[in-house]
Each structure stands twice: as structure tokens, then as C-alpha cells.
Amino acid sequence: MSYLVLARKWRPQTFDEVVGQQPVVRTLQNALRLNRVAHAMLFSGVRGTGKTTLARLMAKAINCEVGAPDQPCNQCESCREITEGRAIDLHEIDGASNRGIQEIRELKENIRFLPSQAKYKIIIIDEVHMLTVEAFNALLKTLEEPPAHVYFMFATTELHKIPITILSRCQRYELKRVAFAELFAFFKKVAGAEGVEIADEALEMIAREAEGSVRDGLSLLDQIFSYGGSQIGVAEVTQVLGLVDRTVFERLARALLAGDLATSLALFDQSYSAGIDLKRFAGDLLHYFRALAIVRAVQEPGPLLDLSDRELATLQEIAAGHSAETLFQYFNLLVKGIEELQYSSRPRLTMEMALVKAVQAGQVVPATELLSRLDGLLQGAALPAKAVAPVAISAAVVREPEPAAFATAPAAEKKTEHADPLEPPAPTQAAAVAVPAAQPARDIRPHWDEFLRYVKERKLWMGQMLALADGIETEGAKVRITFGDAGDGKMLQESENLKLLGELAQEFFQRTLAIRIESRSHSTDNGEDDSTPQEERRALANDPLVQMVAEIFGGQVTGVRPGAPRR
């Protein structure tokens, strides 16, 4: 007798043997038990998840002579005939080969007659989406009101290709990809029953390669069993299937994150010399960094990654030593490299350069930490005249002036209800600062230059930015600071910086102030030609140094204000 492959040998013969489709199985068994079986059922899902298997199990259960209503007995004549493929009242039709209207007409003529042996005629059409539009239309009336002795069961991998008129006449069951843990447990059971001892790491590779398909995994197991005999390890799986051991990606990820270019290129060269497919290698490496990013960003990454506990623990250990920004940066660099690899005539060189770029990117430091470091470096040191603030760089493009922003301290009096645009916000959004009562309050305009020096001593970049203001307007305790370019005052409008500015103003002027930051489009009031300043700003924005800084910080140049010329 010819050899029976594992995919056929381990095809489920009862509902209890179905792997990973418990919600669908429960619904079908309840329908059988309650006598609520639909006359037309449609099973959809990816390959190898059990669509045709469930249709055959339903055919068995419906025609079973002695078993329970919700479970075929596999002992009666009807069950045995279906199992052995010789049941004359079960018609399995290939939708790709019998897709025309003539075949549907013959089917309609056939179902008019009563079943020969079983209680019901069962029509199973596999890959039903391959039928022509005319064939579907010919089936509509029969499908809506079939004879009492007929059940229709359809299976498809492309649900979107089936006309809505057919879908509305069927009871639909969507089968999901089988989870990694269920595939691993099932394959381990199969290996044990077949008398093969296989390492857990090798089974994990097969379960991952199956991508949620039971049939694909069994076909891979069949191939591995033929090669390795009774003892199978990771080496046999990688050699037969042309896969890369997951430990290679682990070591490569550690080397890239550590900035070890030599080790990274050596690992890639070993994999390339082993004959792996470069696109597959690049895709698997990208998936590994995707897993690292998810582990770093999500508290419960298990459901998103669908990995073994051992591999998940390794990912968590690697990700814990790096910031989320660093992992995202590496992922983005690899994505760009892989996109270039798809169209490159020298894919190996492209992949190597992607690894070089990833190593050179280094660790990514958040912008807030960089600003803090910059403050520390600039404390006590004056900037050159040209470097006072020639450009303003922001992570978002400013296209229009933003709504007014305020920094204030809570006032004791109750807020009055009027539409004053300079009215401070509610105390819950204010920066509260204790003001010493012994020191007299200062006027704003006469002491503004002193205030700028006071701010520079504490936050140099903030003082330099305030010095770019075109003017200030005061009205009692209200201060409006106006910038000619939208980008100059952008950072001051951020909530944390605005709060800090309010605190510094209260400390210096010894009173509660409401500060409003505004920006307007640059204009010349004296009628002079503005083409020269525009050209200068354009040249500064396109300066290579400025562009490099913008690329490093992931930002864009949103405004340029030329400094005073050097003498």
C-alpha cells in the first residue's frame, strides 16, 4: 500500500480532533444538538485550517446512523463510506474545474432525486470563489430554497470574491489561523506518535514556518522525518528547509544594538554562505526587530507576538537594555534597507550597507534629554554671534500660527467671565510658584533686559529664544511676546517650556503674570525690498549643517531668522 502522508493520516475524524477552531466547532455541535443546522454553510479562512475537514465532519454527523447528534460515530456504514471516500450521496466538487453554468445545471438536476443510501445528499464545493458569475446566478434560487434532502457546504480562501447574493444565503464560519502554541502542541503529539524524537527548538521553527496552517506544518514535518529519521535537531530543520536558526537573529540583533559592525557582517556572511534567501533573511530580521520594539513598548506583548515563553523572555532581556526610540530607529532603518533590496541588482551589498547604516545610527537619545545636556554644556559659556539662533528646528512643520498659549500662576481672586484674549487659564493649568513677600515687585518693560539675562543664566536656550522676539506688549499683569517668524517661538509654546517660563517670570518680577506667545508672518514696514532677507533665510535653511542637524533630530526646518553679521 502506498505511503499515506501525515496531512491525510492526521486529518480529524471527530470534532474533538480539530485543532485551534474551538468557537466554530462549538457552534456546529450546538446546531447539530439543537437541530438548527443551516441548509447552506460557507467555511472561509487561510489554507490548511480545516475548512473542508469541517464540511466532511458535518456531512458525517448529519448522516450518522447510531452516534450522538453532535458527534459522528465513525463506526456506522455511512461514516465509514465518507471516511473512505466512497459515499455516493456525498458530492465533493472542485470549484476550479467545475466553474461554468453547465456544471451547475447538471448539479441542480442531480439534487432533485432523493439520496440513494444516506438520509441526506451533501454537496461540498471547494474553492467556491472560482465559479463564474453566471454559475453563481444559476445557483441562487436553489441555494435559497433547496430540497429538504440536500445540504450545501462551501469552502473558500478568498471570501471577498463571492457575490453578496450568495453570502446572504449562507451561514458563514470564518476560520482563524491556528495559534503558535496550539500548533506546537499538536506537532509534538504527532512526532511522539510517529516515534520521532525532535528538539523543542526545531518544533518551534516548524510551527513558526507553518504560519497558522496545520496542513503546511504537517507537510514540513513529513519532509523533516524523511531526512532526520528518529533523532531530529535544529541543524536538520535548518538544512532541509533552508531556514536560519533564530539564535542567528538574536546574536545579530545584539551585535547591531551594541554597535559591533564586524560581528554583524560576519553573522550575515555566514548565513549568506549557507545559501539562504536574502529576501527571506531580511524579512525575518525585520520581524525580529519588530518583536523587540513591541516588547519594549507593550506591557503584555505575548498575544501580539505569538511566540514561545523561552523566546519571549530572550526578547524582553534584549529590549530592556535599550530605549524604545532606539529600537524604532533600527526598525525604520532596516525597513528602508529592505525596500531598496527588493529592487537592487546587488542585493547582498544592499543588505550589508543597511547593516552598516544601522550600526552607525547608534543609540537614539530623546530630545528632552538632549536639551537637558545642551543646557549643561552651555551654562557659563557664551555662544558665538553667528550661533545665537540662526534657525529654529521643530519635529513638526508649522504651517499656521498656533492658538495663543499662556503661562500663569493661580490667582486668589475668582475668574471673571469676559472674552479678554489675555485672560489667564484656569488655576489647574497654571504653574504655581511661591513669591517671597519681602521683595518688591518689578516693572516689566524697564527690567526686561535684566530678565533675559536672568533666564539665560538658568536656561540658556530659552533666553536666546526670547531674545529673538520682535517686541513685547504689557497690560497690567498681562504680557504678550510676539515673534516675527512662526518657528522662533514654537518651542516656547510647548506646555513644559511655557510652564517653566511662567515660573522664571514670577521669580524675577515677584508677581503673577499671564504670558502669551504669539507669532506672525514676517513683513517689512519700511517699504524696502525683502528679497535679500528671503534669499538669506533660504540659504540658511538649505545649509548642509542645518540639514544634517534636522535629519539627526528627525525634525524639519520651520523657520529661519538670520543673526547679526559678524564684525
Please tell me about this protein's structure.
- The chain is of the alpha/beta class and 567 residues long.
- The protein folds into 4 domains: 6-174, P-loop containing nucleotide triphosphate hydrolases (Rossmann fold, 3-Layer(aba) Sandwich), CATH 3.40.50.300; 180-241, Helicase, Ruva Protein, domain 3; 247-361, Zinc Finger, Delta Prime, domain 3, CATH 1.20.272; 377-411 and 421-524 and 531-560, no CATH class.
- The chain has helices at 6-9, 22-33, 51-63, 77-84, 101-110, 133-144, 164-167, 180-193, 200-210, 214-228, 234-241, 246-257, 261-273, 278-297, 302-305, 309-319, 324-342, 347-361, 367-378, 448-458, 460-466, 495-509, 531-541, 544-553, and strands spanning 40-44, 90-94, 121-126, 150-156, 171-174, 197-198, 231-232, 391-394, 405-407, 471-475, 478-483, 514-519, 556-560.
- The strands form 4 sheets. It has a 5-stranded parallel beta sheet with strand order 2-3-4-1-5, with helices on one face. A 4-stranded mixed beta sheet has the order 9-12-11-10, with helices on one face. A two-stranded parallel sheet has the order 6-7.
- The radius of gyration is 36 Å and the shape is elongated.
- Mean pLDDT is 80; it is low at 382-438 and 522-531.
